[in-house]
C-alpha cells in the first residue's frame, strides 16, 4: 500500500510550511498569557485606559515608524522610568529572557 507513503511524503512539507509561515505572525494567546504573567494587565488593556496607555493608542503612536519594534523591545526589557500617578516608577519588564517571545508581544501590541 503505497498510499501511506504518499501521504507521509506530502504531509511533512505541508506541516513545515505551515509552521514557518505562522512564526511570522502574532501568537495572540501566547502574548496575552505572557503579559498576564508579567503583570501588564494591571496597568494596560487593549482599548481601555488604565494606569498606562491602551495598546491601541501605542499602536497608533508608532504606526508607520521604522523603529517601532526596536523602541518597544527596549521599553519592555530595560525598566525605563515612567510616571504612574505622578510618581516616577520603573516600568516592568516582560518576565522572560526569550527574545522571540518578547518580539511576539511587541508585534501583538503594534497590531492592535
Ligand atoms: C504600574 C503600572 C504599569 C505596569 C505594571 C506596566 N505598565 Fe506599561 N506603562 C505604564 C505607564 C504609566 C506608561 C506610560 C509611560 C509614558 O508615557 O511615559 C506605560 C507605557 C507602556 C507602553 C508604551 C510605550 C511607548 O513607548 O509608548 C507599552 C507598550 C507598555 N507600557 C506595555 C507594558 C507591558 C507589556 C507591561 C508588562 C510587562 C507593562 N506595560 C506593565 C504603566 C505600567
Task: Describe the overall structure.
This protein has 112 residues and is mainly α. It has one domain (27-110): Cytochrome c-like domain (Cytochrome Bc1 Complex, Chain D, domain 2, Orthogonal Bundle). Helix content is 52%, strand content 7%. It is built from five helices and two strands; from the N terminus they run H-H-H-H-E-E-H. A two-stranded antiparallel ribbon has the order 1-2. Strand 1 (81-84) and strand 2 form a beta hairpin. Helix 4 crosses helix 5 (99-110). The chain starts with a helix and ends with a helix. Mean pLDDT is 88; it is low at 18-23. The structure holds heme C.
Order of helices and strands: HHHHEEH
Radius of gyration: 19 Å
- Overall tally of domains: 1
| CATH homology group | Cytochrome c-like domain
Count the helices. How many?
Answer: 5
Number of strands: 2
Give me the CATH fold name: Cytochrome Bc1 Complex, Chain D, domain 2
What general outline do the C-alpha atoms trace?
A: elongated
> How would a crystallographer describe the biggest sheet?
2 strands, antiparallel
What is the CATH first-level class name?
Mainly Alpha
Helix share bin: 40-55%
Ligand inventory: heme C
CATH architecture: Orthogonal Bundle
Q: Report how far the terminal alpha carbons are from each other.
A: 50 Å
Order of strands across the widest beta sheet?
Answer: 1-2
The chain-level structural class is mainly alpha
Mean pLDDT over all positions: 88
Tell me which oligomeric state these chains represent: single chain
Uncertain runs: 18-23
Beta content: 5-15%
Amino acid at each position: 500500500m503505497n498510499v501511506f507513503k504518499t501521504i507521509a511524503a506530502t504531509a511533512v512539507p505541508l506541516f513545515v510550511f505551515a509552521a514557518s509561515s505562522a512564526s511570522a505572525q502574532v501568537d495572540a494567546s501566547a502574548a496575552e498569557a505572557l503579559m498576564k504573567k508579567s503583570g501588564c494587565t494591571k496597568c494596560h488593556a487593549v482599548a481601555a485606559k488604565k494606569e498606562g496607555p491602551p495598546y491601541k493608542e501605542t499602536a497608533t503612536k508608532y504606526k508607520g515608524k521604522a523603529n517601532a519594534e526596536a523602541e518597544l523591545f527596549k521599553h519592555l526589557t530595560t525598566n525605563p522610568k515612567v510616571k504612574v500617578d505622578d510618581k516616577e516608577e520603573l516600568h516592568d519588564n516582560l518576565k522572560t529572557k526569550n527574545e522571540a517571545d518578547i518580539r511576539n508581544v511587541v508585534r501583538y501590541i503594534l497590531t492592535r
